[in-house]
Design a protein that fits this description.
3 helices, mainly alpha, flat
Length: 103
């Protein structure tokens, strides 16, 4: 019973704060910003959702133990982090023709 009250209070507070924020966004920001926001939100939702589904799938379908599933999950995360975190400037040992930034 008390959990339902907490959920209802959370929904009411969310709606009370969402209405002024959405009003401000629709009035003062470019319309394309809303599209960008929802595209970014959906990308994050799918990335974190796929990570959770990966662990579930590995342990339930392939019957991996928790350690092996965790190692596979860690490999997936490190691969994603490596691919998305390229340095802004190449190292000083790289030839200057590789640098997109001119000095």
């Amino acid at each position: 019973m008390s959990l339902n009250i907490v959920i209802m209070a959370g929904l009411v507070i969310t709606l009370l704060t969402a209405v002024p924020v959405m009003t401000q966004i629709l009035r003062h920001h470019p319309k394309g910003l809303i599209i960008l926001f929802f595209a970014e939100m959906w990308e994050r939702f799918s990335y974190y959702g796929m990570r959770g589904i990966l662990i579930f799938y590995l342990t339930q379908h392939f019957l991996f133990d928790d350690a092996t599933a965790g190692a596979t999950y860690g490999s997936y995360t490190s691969l994603w982090r490596t691919a998305t975190s390229a340095p802004a400037r190449p190292s000083s040992s790289a030839p200057s023709c590789w640098s997109p930034v001119t000095d």
